[in-house]
Write a structure and sequence with these properties.
By secondary structure, this protein is an alpha+beta fold. Helices cover about 45% and strands about 15% of the residues. The protein has a 3-stranded antiparallel β-sheet.
Length: about 80
């Protein structure tokens, strides 16, 4: 089964991922905390809106390519 994502986005926040990309791979989608732990443990690249801020500094964005690669590698092992 080939999964195809029709997106041109390069970066997405956790909320955007949970709305658009994650439901393609998982149903029901995991919680925000679980998803963040998975992506951080897999070293998926992430970027802060304001990298100079010590705490907070706006939302954190994840690389869409990294997220897709992470889930595709996990789905390939499940088949």
């Amino acid at each position: 089964m080939e999964l195809k994502i029709n997106s041109t986005a390069r970066l997405a926040s956790l909320d955007q991922l949970l709305e658009t990309t994650i439901p393609i791979f998982l149903s029901p989608p995991p919680s925000r905390d679980t998803l963040r732990n998975w992506l951080d443990s897999a070293n998926v690249p992430r970027f802060k809106a304001n990298p100079s801020a010590k705490r907070g500094g706006g939302p954190c964005f994840y690389s869409m390519a990294g997220v897709e690669k992470f889930f595709r590698s996990r789905m390939a092992g499940a088949n």
